[in-house]
Amino acid sequence: MAQDLLETLEANRADCVGMAANMIGVNKRIITFDNEGTYMVMFNPEIVKQSGPYLTEEGCLSLTGTRKTKRFRSIKVRYQNEKFQVRLKTFTGWTAQIIQHEIDHCEGIII
Ligand SMILES: [Zn+2]
């Protein structure tokens, strides 16, 4: 399943930096995204801490155009990796923004 998602992301890499499983019709909490040049997969990602709110505009494969949204500069995420080991990691900046966007997809929120 994660492999499928990665392939879909790669196929759309020109206009997409992340994907959530439910974007391709699978109702599971899996996301993949571009982490500074390497694709990363997370199972059951959850933001446990966030700081530095700011307003920005985002586009999405599921929408046309961009929309305003509030994001956080720094987030701490708890997730399971490909081996289903629980991990805790802090992300900042652009990568953090992508993750927040994809986790929103898992919650059924589009931006
Ligand atoms: Zn999106």
Structure description:
- With about 110 residues, the protein is an alpha+beta fold.
- It has a single domain, classed as Alpha-Beta Complex (Peptide Deformylase).
- The protein is about 20% helix and about 50% strand.
- The chain is built from 2 helices and 5 strands.
- A hairpin with a 6-residue loop joins strand 3 (about 40-60) and strand 4.
- The longest helix has 14 residues, at about 95-105.
- The protein is globular and about 35 Å long.
- The mean pLDDT is about 90.
- The structure holds zinc ion (ZN).
- Zinc ion (ZN) binds near residues 60, 61, 62, 101 and 105.
Order the strands across the largest sheet as they lie in space.
1-2-3-4-5
State the separation between the terminal residues, measured CA to CA. Answer: 24 Å
Q: SS-based structural class?
A: alpha+beta
Give the topology string: H per helix, E per strand: HEEEEEH
Poorly predicted sequence stretches spanning 5 or more consecutive residues: none
Average of the residue pLDDT scores: 90
Shape by Cα distribution: globular
CATH first level: which class? Alpha Beta
Give the total of beta strands: 5
Question: In terms of quaternary structure, what is this?
Answer: single chain
Q: List each distinct ligand once.
A: zinc ion
Rg value: 13 Å
Number of helices: 2
CATH architecture: Alpha-Beta Complex
- Classify the helix fraction into a percent range: 10-25%
Please indicate the percent range of residues in DSSP E strands (runs of 2 or more). Answer: over 45%
Q: What is the CATH superfamily classification?
A: Peptide deformylase
Would you give the CATH topology? Peptide Deformylase
Query: What is the domain total for the residues?
Result: 1
Largest sheet: 5 strands, antiparallel
